[in-house]
């Protein structure tokens, strides 16, 4: 039997990397718009005007690709069952010395929370982004509230993404292969997502 099992299709992986590339482009092009401290980042884009233009283009790409990603895996991230509750009560075993075992499906509750936050942040960042993009077309208070909300949602996103990148790479060895090659080791799947493994493989143990 093949040692690996498919976790993501090619189109799912391409979509995830489009979201990632646009997210980091938004981060680099947006930082200088918030504070003069980060103006140095504008040089990546050939100056402030270019950075603003690239921020808008990356914003449109991120908005549509991230929402598409949400609708694509909505059924896997939007329900929490009894096994998920157990994971939450025991903090996923991350704060215990002994290894813990949970009967987790395709995603654990931490991953679901992350995916739901990113979906909500995408919607809020997109809508507030339009108000900031066309300030003359909207009341001044709305543009100012949007600037504040846009910044706060972004700070939340980057905090979640830092944790996500850590857990998807060095935190849980073997995970990154899922997004690079589309498959994971069967032992990895049995350890981290046993319920999903049983469904995907048809094995009943
Ligand atoms: C270098 C940066 C990144 C790396 C290395 C990375 C890696 C991964 C990996 C390996 C998975 C699959 C996890 C699994 O199979 O259980 C995944 C899933 C996912 N990624 Fe990323 N990712 C990155 C950036 C991002 C960004 C910027 C976003 C969104 C803004 C994002 C959103 C997601 C979502 C929603 C999932 C599915 C739910 C989850 O596994 O948490 N990723 N990522």
Please sum up the structure shown:
With 205 residues, the chain is mainly α. The chain contains nine helices and two strands, in the order βαααααααβαα.
Could you explain how this protein is built, in words?
The structure is a single chain. The protein has 205 residues and is an all-alpha fold. The protein has a single domain (4-201), classed as Fumarate Reductase Cytochrome B subunit (Up-down Bundle), CATH 1.20.950. It is 68% helix and 3% strand. The protein contains 9 helices and 2 strands; from the N terminus they run E-H-H-H-H-H-H-H-E-H-H. A two-stranded antiparallel sheet has the order 1-2. It is elongated. The two termini are 15 Å apart. The mean pLDDT is 96. The structure holds protoporphyrin IX containing FE. The site of protoporphyrin IX containing FE has 19 residues, from helix 1, helix 5, helix 6 and helix 7. Protoporphyrin IX containing FE is lined by residues 7, 16, 19-20, 23, 107, 111, 114-115, 118, 161, 164-165, 168-169, 175-176, 178-179.
Strand order of the largest sheet: 1-2
What is the C-level CATH assignment? Mainly Alpha
Shape: elongated
How far apart lie the N and C ends?
A: 15 Å
Query: What is the strand content?
Result: under 5%
Short descriptors:
205 residues; mainly alpha; two-stranded antiparallel ribbon; 9 helices; 2 strands; binds protoporphyrin IX containing FE; Fumarate Reductase Cytochrome B subunit
């Amino acid at each position: 039997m093949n040692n690996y099992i498919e976790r993501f299709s090619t189109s799912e992986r391409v979509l995830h990397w489009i979201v990632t590339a646009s997210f980091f482009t938004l981060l680099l092009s947006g930082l200088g718009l918030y504070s003069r401290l980060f103006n140095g980042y504008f040089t990546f884009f050939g100056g402030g005007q270019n950075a603003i233009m690239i921020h808008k283009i990356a914003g449109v790409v991120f908005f549509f690709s991230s929402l598409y990603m949400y609708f694509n895996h909505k059924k896997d991230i939007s329900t929490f069952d009894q096994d998920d509750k157990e994971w939450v009560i025991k903090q996923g075993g991350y704060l215990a010395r002994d290894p813990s075992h949970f009967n987790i499906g395709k995603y654990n509750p931490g991953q679901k929370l992350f995916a739901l936050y990113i979906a909500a942040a995408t919607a809020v960042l997109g809508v507030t982004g339009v108000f900031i993009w066309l300030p003359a077309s909207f009341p001044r208070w709305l543009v100012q509230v949007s600037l504040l909300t846009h910044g706060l949602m972004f700070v939340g996103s980057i905090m979640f993404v830092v944790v996500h990148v850590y857990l998807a790479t060095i935190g849980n060895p073997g995970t990154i292969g899922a997004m690079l090659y589309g498959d994971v080791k069967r032992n990895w799947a049995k350890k981290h997502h046993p319920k999903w493994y049983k469904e995907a493989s048809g094995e009943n143990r």
